């Protein structure tokens, strides 16, 4: 049976908790002198990246290798893709090579769904356009749970460029599944038209929600995806929606500060806040390896895949 992880909505509450609990177990491997398990020996994982990424690609590569899988890194730059080869032709090439799982990042929303139709291996979405990034949401939830305990009833605030953020969409879906109350904070121009159908609240005033937040996630302003003026100036955006040291001081003492990276220091987050004691930004990167190990293990490790949607 072929299963994939393409959207956070593919995961039931039990699925999500299984990933988080498995990641907790696998995190212990990282503390050992030999950071390897033989679980996926003989299987091949392909990292198929049509967009640049450092954290996500290296994280998936480390996760697969710690489970003893063979890893093939495929970058669109300098490949046949840059000469005009289609996604389908690339998929057929991977199928001929016998890839057991393909981790795909693509600029077009929906590309992982198409890939899942064309290959027999498992497909994991590592970010598709402005659509979703489910493993980022899982590692964010894992990080929150380590600091806050159960996410039931926790108030999570996600701030910034929601319109272009696949991380925001996946987090809203997953965190609501796990029982958290999510509030999106952004200027109206940086919220998608469909936000009214999302399981979350919306606010345009960051200062009004900080004191009630258990975790605040700042999103990068994705200027490379912007082809219009979404706010007057960067300075004005930072003044209204940036997490400054002053705003940071209004957070509850237990609250954590998050960012999926890479950061625009001084725009959406002040440098001293990013480097503060309650910032989990570096920790999130490390947690990403454990969570992606859990996803690969649960999709590929058993006779029956334990998570993901049937295709």
TrEMBL record:
Species, as recorded: Actinocorallia herbida
Family the entry assigns: Belongs to the aspartate/ornithine carbamoyltransferase superfamily. ATCase family.
NCBIfam families recorded: asp_carb_tr (TIGR00670), PRK00856.1 (NF002032)
HAMAP family, alphabetized: Asp_carb_tr
Residues reported to bind L-aspartate: 83, 166, 220
Quaternary structure, from the entry: Heterododecamer (2C3:3R2) of six catalytic PyrB chains organized as two trimers (C3), and six regulatory PyrI chains organized as three dimers (R2).
Keyword Flavoprotein: no
Binding site for carbamoyl phosphate: 55-56, 105, 133, 136, 261-262
Residue span, Aspartate/ornithine carbamoyltransferase carbamoyl-P binding domain: 3-145
Gene that this polypeptide is encoded by: pyrB
Name the UniProt record assigns to this protein: Aspartate carbamoyltransferase
Pathway: Pyrimidine metabolism; UMP biosynthesis via de novo pathway; (S)-dihydroorotate from bicarbonate: step 2/3
Record carries keyword Transferase: yes
Assigned keywords, A-Z: Pyrimidine biosynthesis, Transferase
Residue span(s) of domain Aspartate/ornithine carbamoyltransferase Asp/Orn-binding: 152-299
Top-level taxon: Bacteria
């Amino acid at each position: 049976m072929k299963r994939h992880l393409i959207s956070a909505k593919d995961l039931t509450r039990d699925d999500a908790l299984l990933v988080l609990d498995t990641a907790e177990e696998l995190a212990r491997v990282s503390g050992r002198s030999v950071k390897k398990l033989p679980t996926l020996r003989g299987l091949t994982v392909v990292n198929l990246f049509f967009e640049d990424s450092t954290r996500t690609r290296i994280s998936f590569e480390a996760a697969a290798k710690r489970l003893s899988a063979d890893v093939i890194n495929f970058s669109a730059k300098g490949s046949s893709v840059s000469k005009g080869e289609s996604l389908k032709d690339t998929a057929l090439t991977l199928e001929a090579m016998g890839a057991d799982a393909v981790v795909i990042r693509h600029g077009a929303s929906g590309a992982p769904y198409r890939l899942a139709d064309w290959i027999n291996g498992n497909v994991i979405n590592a970010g598709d356009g402005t659509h979703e990034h489910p493993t980022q949401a899982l590692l964010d939830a894992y990080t929150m749970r380590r600091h806050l305990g159960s996410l039931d009833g926790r108030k999570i605030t996600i701030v910034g460029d929601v319109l272009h953020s696949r991380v925001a969409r996946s987090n809203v879906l997953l965190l609501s599944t796990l029982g958290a109350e999510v509030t999106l904070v952004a200027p109206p121009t940086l919220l998608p038209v469909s936000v009214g159908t999302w399981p979350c609240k919306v606010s345009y005033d960051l200062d009004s929600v900080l004191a009630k937040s258990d975790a605040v996630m700042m999103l990068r302003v994705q200027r490379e995806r912007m082809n219009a003026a979404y706010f007057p100036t960067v300075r004005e955006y930072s003044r209204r929606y940036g997490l400054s040291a002053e705003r940071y001081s209004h957070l509850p003492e237990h609250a954590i500060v998050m960012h999926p990276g890479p950061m625009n220091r001084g725009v959406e987050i002040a440098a001293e806040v990013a480097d503060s004691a309650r910032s989990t930004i570096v920790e999130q990167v490390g947690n990403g390896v454990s969570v992606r190990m859990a996803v690969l293990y649960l999709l590929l490790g058993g006779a029956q895949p334990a998570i993901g949607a049937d295709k």
